[in-house]
Amino acid sequence: MSSDLLHKKCIPCEGGVNPLSEHEYKKYLDQLKGWIVKDGKKIEKDFSFKNFKEAVAFINSIATIAEHEGHHPDILLYRWNNIKITCYTHTINGLHENDFILAAKIDSIK
């Protein structure tokens, strides 16, 4: 399950590889809870918190993980206590295993 993804490390992706196909990314998506695929190129998940301070603390925790992994999600804070996380690999304009590794690690802190 996602514990497999938790034990992996993101690898640098500087392009030159194809994005995951639907068949390929579904095996990773099945290991995550609550993440959805957008346009076949991105995965997203919304998180809600009791207050603004908790939401910002969660963003800071994500920043620490993202820096450690060398893979950075898009983060949107909206309505003061909600966060939308979007993961995709910019260099290939699509999904890579790194996106699912990062998603699993984000889920592990919530």
Automatic annotation (TrEMBL):
Keyword Lyase: yes
Alphabetized Pfam families for the sequence: Pterin_4a
Classification via InterPro entries: PCD_sf, Pterin_deHydtase
TM ranges: none
GO biological process: one example: tetrahydrobiopterin biosynthetic process
Molecular function terms, GO-annotated: 4-alpha-hydroxytetrahydrobiopterin dehydratase activity
Keywords of the record: Lyase
EC nos: 4.2.1.96
Uppermost EC category: lyase
Record field: catalytic activity: (4aS,6R)-4a-hydroxy-L-erythro-5,6,7,8-tetrahydrobiopterin = (6R)-L-erythro-6,7-dihydrobiopterin + H2O
UniProt record similarity statement: Belongs to the pterin-4-alpha-carbinolamine dehydratase family.
PANTHER family attached to this UniProt entry: PTERIN-4-ALPHA-CARBINOLAMINE DEHYDRATASE
HAMAP family: Pterin_4_alpha
Protein name per Swiss-Prot or TrEMBL: Putative pterin-4-alpha-carbinolamine dehydratase
